[in-house]
Amino acid sequence: MNWLQALVLGLVQGLTEFLPVSSSGHLAIGKAILGVEPSDDLVFEVTVHAATVLSTIFVFRKQIWKLLCGLFKFKYNDETDYIAKICLSMIPVLVVGVFFKDWVEAAFGSLVVVGIALLVTALLLSLSDWLSVRGISRLRPSGSARNDKGETISPVAGQPQSVISTGAERSGEISPRNGISFWQAFVVGIGQALAVIPGLSRSGTTISTGLLCGVKRENMAQFSFLMVLIPILGEMFLDVVGGDFAASSAGVMPLLIGFAAAFVSGLFACKVMIALVRKAQLKWFGLYCAIVGIFVLVFLA
């Protein structure tokens, strides 16, 4: 792998890890176009994944710090509630990653699967966006306010609702703590587990699943990005201990270039995605995934 290939693939990884267009699918497409072997190079893939993890931590550093501070208060509060829901959401992907990872890679490793999965991603994004937009005026609060602590006050009950995520709660409705319930977190986790199939976007699947379950957009964007940190780190760990890591042939310069490209582009994509989710623009990513999926099936598969 040369430095130009590393730069392009690093940019692809950083942008597509957060945008709902499937990073694994685009990496497979990028490698096919650039002439890089699918298995070359594991060190590089772990490196660019580490870069996107760091970019996520940087963007959400304040929220993560708040969660950690709440956790070490050693009592059940909003922070521990949020962490518990993140842990619950990780159970499905943990089961798939530990017991079915090799089978999934063997069964779904072709570009045909990538193309089909991109079309499925397009359907999920378009459907969730359409349904969410239809109800978006109903979800906007009327007359909600904030107290001096910055907590959202229900216009009906007049009680503050302290949440980790930003955004007002539904007017006149009882909202789950932190904007997402335990059952919603688990269903979103199932969506994340399905996203191990190349071409199914991790962020696209989790955000779409959450929206279809009734989670508000501003709550779902943050939860989606925070819930993937541990699974990505776990995936990196499994790759490292798998044995092929030591046999990698990437040079130092391609690794550094790929890391920097993935980190910088990841920062940009993460912030852009948060804004787009709140503004109901997922349909355009759905259209993009459909076009790329058709292109893969027609020209590359």
Can you walk me through this structure?
- α5 packs parallel to α9 and α7 packs antiparallel against α14.
- The protein has 14 helices and 3 strands.
- With 301 residues, the chain is mainly α.
- The two termini are 23 Å apart.
- About 13% of the residues have low confidence.
- It has one domain.
Secondary structure topology:
Blueprint: H1 3-18, H2 23-34, H3 42-59, H4 61-71, H5 78-99, H6 101-107, H7 111-134, H8 136-139, E1 145-146, E2 152-153, E3 160-161, H9 182-194, H10 202-212, H11 217-227, H12 229-241, H13 252-278, H14 282-300
Antiparallel strand pairs: 1-2, 2-3
Q: What is the count of β-strands?
A: 3
What value does the average pLDDT take?
A: 79
β-sheet strand percentage = under 5%
For the report, how would you describe the main beta sheet?
3 strands, antiparallel
Helix content: 55-70%
Shape: globular
Looking across the biggest beta sheet, what order are the strands in? 1-2-3
Distance between the termini: 23 Å
Kindly give the count of domains.
1
**What class, by secondary structure content?**
mainly alpha
> What is the H-and-E element order?
HHHHHHHHEEEHHHHHH
Count of separate DSSP helical elements: 14
Tell me the Rg in angstroms: 20 Å
- Low-pLDDT ranges: 136-163, 165-174
What would you say about this model in short?
The protein has 301 residues and is mainly alpha-helical. 69% of the residues lie in helices and 2% in strands.
